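Here is the promised in-class demo. Please do not try to memorize the tokens; focus on the logic of going from shape to residues.
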């Protein structure tokens, strides 16, 4: 066979969860930092490719499609090069449900990976801010970066949860299919299309937002970028509402909750229920 069947992917994903839970603190921390940086690279690269299109309503959809075509590189790096990504690790609930790992081990992994992803993502955001690249396109890269961040922190709580759920449903399907592929080419193709779809759709990814929103906060501190953003129609009230507090309370918290639901319930939970539930006997006594 050229790929695992869905039931075999389910088993492999449970085994992966057991393996991840057994990683040392050092291994988990390093791989989580790298994954955060990989997703941040994908985020800044997709912004760089599409900022001119994203800045205009008539080309916004094309900009999202172009950004999506670039963004999949981040998850490709995580899966092929190696990394621990919180959104993918929501599927570790399968190992817990199968009683292969404890709830404490699951939560320990999630906490460590989430923290490592955050550090890696914010590190790249800081490097971008200090590199001068936000001035690209006559300050428009920075202006679009600021607009994206301000828009994300203006979402309602319920909207952010829903967008996070749909996002990680697709992200975990990408990881799921990549697990089933037996060569690198298959893994890359399995990742590309669901990630392209989630970015084009405008869904919310907690780890990507660990880049997008801090990058916007850093961009806000650059006067030329701020002036460009205001000149292109970004409301001052949204700019003023963009800060570290609203980052956590208005976006990261609800998006993370949605991401957990999307990966743990609608991917791992659904397939585990389909493939590992004990079947009832249909044998009947003869008359």
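The designed amino acids, position by position:
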């Amino acid at each position: 066979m050229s790929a695992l069947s869905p039931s075999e992917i389910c088993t492999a994903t449970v085994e992966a969860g057991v393996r991840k839970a057994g990683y040392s603190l050092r291994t988990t921390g390093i791989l989580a930092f790298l994954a955060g940086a990989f997703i941040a690279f994908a985020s800044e690269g997709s912004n760089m490719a599409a900022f001119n299109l994203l800045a205009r309503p008539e080309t916004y959809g094309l900009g999202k499609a172009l950004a999506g075509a670039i963004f999949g590189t981040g998850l490709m790096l995580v899966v092929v090069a190696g990394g621990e990504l919180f959104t993918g690790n929501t599927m570790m609930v399968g190992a817990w449900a199968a009683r292969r790992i404890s709830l404490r081990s699951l939560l320990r992994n999630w906490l460590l990976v989430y923290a490592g992803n955050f550090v890696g993502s914010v590190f790249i955001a800081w490097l971008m801010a200090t590199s001068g690249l936000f001035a690209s396109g006559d300050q428009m890269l920075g202006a679009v970066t600021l607009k994206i961040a301000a828009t994300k922190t203006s979402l309602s709580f319920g909207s952010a949860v829903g967008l996070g759920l749909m996002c990680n449903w697709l992200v975990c399907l990408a990881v799921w299919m990549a697990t089933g592929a037996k060569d690198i080419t298959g893994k890359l193709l399995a990742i590309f299309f669901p990630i392209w779809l989630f970015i084009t759709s405008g869904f919310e990814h907690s780890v990507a937002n660990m880049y997008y929103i801090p990058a916007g906060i850093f961009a806000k501190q650059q006067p030329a970028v701020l002036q460009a953003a205001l000149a292109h129609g970004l409301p001052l009230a949204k700019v003023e509402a963009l800060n570290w507090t609203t980052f956590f309370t208005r976006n990261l918290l609800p998006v993370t909750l949605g991401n957990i639901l999307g990966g743990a319930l609608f991917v791992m939970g659904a397939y585990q229920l389909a493939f590992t539930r004990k079947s009832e006997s249909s044998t009947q006594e003869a008359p």
